[in-house]
């Protein structure tokens, strides 16, 4: 007797596009496909039960955006709330409204997890095998857009914490926060210093005693969390922050010590007398070697003024049944430990990808125009910025994708594949240039950029905006029909 997953059922007629993922990236792509290419056929395959991607996955207290929602929200439905930085439930509410208002929900197929993608040059089609509750379904399409993000949804980053196996309390990784857990009055210890730790501490401090344990500090900047009223057109409203981002990063690049001093001075002014800026908020690296964390309305610093909220900087010597012992002799009592130690980076959503029977690996692959993989036909992946709004990067990717489709359609072209010239001057450039531990650990499994032409990384939002809409989108592509 065959298993329920032994047979593959053809799902429907061949499609023009398949969008994989119904998070920010996939929803954005679906909107522009139905708006700019109303004659094409497409579907959105979502492996989870709900839209939202990251915002549906993460449920830890305080989960929020780390960029301004005026640029993180969609260009076609501006962020309607006054919050510049908002928590996950409000972002999910916004996404549901976007999907419903614009009829995108009719394209989304939930619990459709893509297992594999195979390209055939003979048929000039992708064939996708999809798991729908144990039933295997087969889809075919001319183009595939991967909106699956950049980290492993199923497995968080694993880190070594001496003696963590001895702890008798609760150990929680934020990626799998138990929603039923009541931490009221508990002694909570957060291990980590990144954006997750910075956002979770103020939320926990409302009901619990909290200690942040960090091996080394990061930069934390307070920002105003109320958006000013604006009468500018949406396009200008979204483009201007790109220019400001570029200017800010030029400042960080050419005046790093000044930038560092101003951030540390602002942090010192917000700390209670019991917590010093050095060593607790004085990073060993310059600004933007790792991500800059934001505290809306200074909520992180305000939480540190509570008498039962503390910061400990140093190395953990060992964890016992109920305590964390530091190398400097400090002992911290704990009922629960939150391991906010980062994500596990992984592109492609664990999908097996083959081109004419040859497996494609992300590791070491060269990226064209920040959106296509060398030698892989008719496949685009959505990726944002590490130093700016994710959605702005996705907007630029989709703008190129739409232009490319229209160009191919107008010329009767059916296949576009990035080809790196054999004699091209090529210096590899890191895909994710931050120095964070999780980024360094994943570097050997990541693709790379080149140093010239359209093989260079996207790092300047305003320049990339102009290029995506009016620049060269054919150099480096091999076309056929």
CATH homologous superfamily annotation of the largest domain: FAD/NAD(P)-binding domain
Number of folding domains?
2
The appropriate CATH architecture of the largest domain is 3-Layer(bba) Sandwich
Approximately how much helix is present in the residues?
25-40%
Query: Are there runs of 5+ residues with pLDDT below 50, and where?
Result: none
Give the tally of β-strands. 26
What would you call the structural class? alpha/beta
Question: How would you characterize the largest beta sheet?
Answer: 10 strands, mixed
Mean pLDDT, all residues:
92
Coarse shape? globular
Tally of alpha and pi helices: 12
The radius of gyration is: 23 Å
Gap between N and C termini, in Å?
Answer: 44 Å
**CATH overall fold name of the largest domain:** FAD/NAD(P)-binding domain
How is this structure best described in words?
This protein is an alpha/beta fold and 481 residues long. It has two domains: 283 residues, FAD/NAD(P)-binding domain (3-Layer(bba) Sandwich), CATH 3.50.50; 176 residues, FAD/NAD(P)-binding domain, CATH 3.50.50.60. Helix content is 27%, strand content 23%. It contains twelve helices and 26 strands. Strands 1, 2, 3, 4, 5, 6, 7, 18, 19 and 22 form a ten-stranded mixed β-sheet that branches. Strands 8-17-9-10-13 form a five-stranded parallel β-sheet, covered by helices on one side. It has a three-stranded antiparallel β-sheet with strand order 14-15-16, with no helix packed on it. A hairpin with a 2-residue loop joins β6 and β7. α1 packs parallel to α10, α6 crosses α7 and α10 packs parallel to α12. The radius of gyration is 23 Å and the shape is globular.
